[in-house]
Write a structure and sequence with these properties.
- The chain has one domain.
- Helix content is 25%, strand content 36%.
- It has helices at 4-19, 39-42, 94-101; strands spanning 26-27, 34-37, 46-55, 63-71, 75-84, 89-93.
- A 6-stranded mixed β-sheet has the order 1-2-6-5-4-3.
- The chain is globular and about 45 Å long.
- The N and C termini lie far apart (41 Å).
Length: 111
Amino acid sequence: MPAEAAARRALEVYLHAWQQGHHADEVPNTSPRVIGGDSLHAAGRKLEGFTVVGPAPGDAPRCFAVRLKLNGPAEELRERYVVVGLDPIWVFRYPDYEMLMHWEHAMPAKK
């Protein structure tokens, strides 16, 4: 489990990369490596801005409350993010982390 300061830094690096338009899961040029698992980001939503509010309760080692300003469509969300690992450091949106911990995944729509 990363220290709280390292976990917060990794979360901010991940969210900043998303805000800058970076689309891959791994944030380039990070040491330790930072990798995201976020279905909002994967769906192509544009991040206009974010605020890391601070540590939050959750069934995970390091949880943070985050306010996201998304575009396409415009929306402001309050989310929790989980940060785990040392190298790489993984950043998950809490619902995505819960699905992973239960070996679940989102089911694609039937054609």
